[in-house]
Amino acid sequence: DAGVIQSPRHEVTEMGQEVTLRCKPISGHNSLFWYRQTMMRGLELLIYFNNNVPIDDSGMPEDRFSAKMPNASFSTLKIQPSEPRDSAVYFCASSRSGRDTDTQYFGPGTRLTVL
Amino acid sequence: KQEVTQIPAALSVPEGENLVLNCSFTDSAIYNLQWFRQDPGKGLTSLLLIQSSQREQTSGRLNASLDKSSGRSTLYIAASQPGDSATYLCAVRSSYNNNDMRFGAGTRLTVKP
Fold first, then answer.
1. With contact defined as beta carbons under 8 Å apart, do B94 and B2 qualify?
2. For residues A67 and A47, is the Cβ–Cβ distance under 8 A?
3. Which of A53, A57, A45 is nearest to A69 (CA)?
4. Cα–Cα distance measured from residue A33 to residue A31, given in angstroms and rounded to the nearest whole number
5. Given an 8 Å threshold on Cβ–Cβ distance, is A105 in contact with B100?
6. B49 φ, ψ to 5°?
7. Could you give the CA distance from residue B36 to residue B34 in angstroms, rounded to a whole number?
8. Pick from A70, A74, B34, B99: most CB atoms within 10 A?
9. pLDDT tens per residue, chain B (113 residues)?
10. Nearest CA in chain B to A4
């Protein structure tokens, strides 16, 4: 399996622009997670989906952030408009539900820089 | 709210030493605890997962223990190698909501040849 795939790997944009991050989970996994990692705050859960349905988005910082999962093999995280404080590495992770197989597998991340 | 603390923040050891990384958490109502490794500029790789009913897990030179009542976990690395240099994060999953996983800030390990 190719693992969790994220694109782009790096994104540099200007303040006010729309940014869309993409994630393809591991085939057969039915839970998907979006995380943000910064030096100041560490790794934070933004939102997670189960069977394509958003379960908890309490970690989404503001209304500027939105996430969708239109099918089991694709998810997007959108920031509109972007701000310099959104600069971070954004990780997507997936897992199977169930006690014995609930290890989360992380993608390589997207490094976002907002100028 | 669950808080996860890792001490030390950074550790440097000579090759061959055995070492222990520490993780503490404030709420003992956990579903499981997981140790990850993160290399610079890369994603996280799962090392060991301990369910709440377990006391330890082993994989090769790695051994992770869990003491739920005291809110602690340790990651023991035997015979450290330069290739072990990375940041190690522990993550605790809540038993109230087992998709809510809280991460520590990590311990940055350097193993010198």
1. yes
2. yes
3. A53
4. 7
5. no
6. -125, 130
7. 7
8. B34
9. 889 999 999 999 999 999 999 999 999 999 899 999 999 888 899 999 999 999 999 999 999 999 999 999 999 999 999 999 999 999 998 888 777 789 999 999 999 99
10. B43
Query: HEC profile for chain B?
Result: CCCEEEECCEEEEECCCCEEEEEEECCCCEEEEEEEEECCCCCEEEEEEEECCCCEEEECCEEEEEECCCCEEEEEECCCCHHHCEEEEEEEEECCCCCCEEECCCEEEEEEC
Look at residues A17, A38, A10, A43 and name the one whose alpha carbon lies nearest to residue A110. Answer: A10
The residue with tokens 């990692």 is A37
Please name the member of B97, B100, B103 whose beta carbon is closest to the beta carbon of A43.
B103
Q: Are A26 and A52 in contact (CB under 8 A)?
A: no
B6: nearest CA partner in chain A? A42
Contacts 24+ apart (CB under 8 A), A51-57: A55/B99, A56/B97, A56/B99, A56/B100
Strand partners, B66: B73
Cβ contacts of B60 within 8 Å, gap of 6 or more? none
Residue A7: in which H helix or E strand, if any? strand A5-7
Chain A residues with CB-CB distance to B59 below 8 A:
none
- Where residue A72 falls (left for φ over 0; alpha for ψ -120 to 50; beta otherwise) is alpha
C-beta separation of A33 from A45 below 8 A: yes
